[in-house]
Amino acid sequence: MDYNFSEIEKKWQQWWAQNKTYRATDKSDKPKYYVLDMFPYPSGAGLHVGHPLGYIASDIFARYKRLKGFNVLHPMGYDAFGLPAEQYAIQTGQHPEKTTHDNVARYRTQLDRIGFSFDWDREFRTSDPDYYKWTQWAFLKMFGSWYDNSLQKARPIEELVKAFEEGGSEAVNAACSEGKAFTSAQWKAFSEKEKADALMRYRLAYLGESTVNWCPALGTVLANDEVKDGYSERGGHPVFQKKMTQWQLRVSAYAGRLLDGLEKLDWTDSLKEMQRNWIGRSEGAEMVFPVECDNRKYDVTIFTTRADTIFGVTFMVLAPESEWVAKLTSASQKAEVEAYLEQVKKKTERERMAGKAVTGVFSGAYGINPVTGEKVPVWISEYVLAGYGTGAIMAVPAHDSRDYAFARKFDLPIVPVIEGADVSEQSVDAKEGIMCNSGFLNGMPVKKAIPAAIAYVQEKGIGHRKINYRIRDAIFSRQRYWGEPFPIYYKDGIATPVAFEDLPLTLPEIDQYKPTEDGQPPLARAKDWTYKGYPLEKSTMPGFAGSSAYYLRYMDPHNGEALVSRQADEYWRNVDLYVGGTEHATGHLIYSRFWNKFLYDIGYICEDEPFKKLINQGMIQGRSNFVYRYIGEGATGNLYISYNLIENPEYKDKVQPIHVNVNIVNNDVLDINAFRAWMPEFKNAEFVFADGTSSELTGYTAGAKQYICGWAVEKMSKSMFNVVNPDDVIAKFGADTLRLYEMFLGPLEMSKPWDTNGIDGVHRFLKRLWNMYENITDEEPTKEELRSLHKLIKKITWDIENFSFNTSIPAFMIAQNELSALKCSKRAILEPIAVLLAPYAPHIAEEMYHRCLSLSLEGRAGEGLFVVNESWPECNEAYLVEDTQKYPVQFNGKVRFTLECPKDTPKEEVEKLVLAHEDTSKYLAGNTPKKVIVVPGRIVNIVM
RNA sequence: GCCGCGAUGGUGGAAUAGGUAGACACGAAGGACUUAAAAUCCUUUGGCCAGUGAUGGCUGUGUGGGUUCAAGUCCCACUCGCGGUACCA
Question: Does the CB of A754 fall within 7 Å of any strand B atom?
Answer without folding.
Answer: no
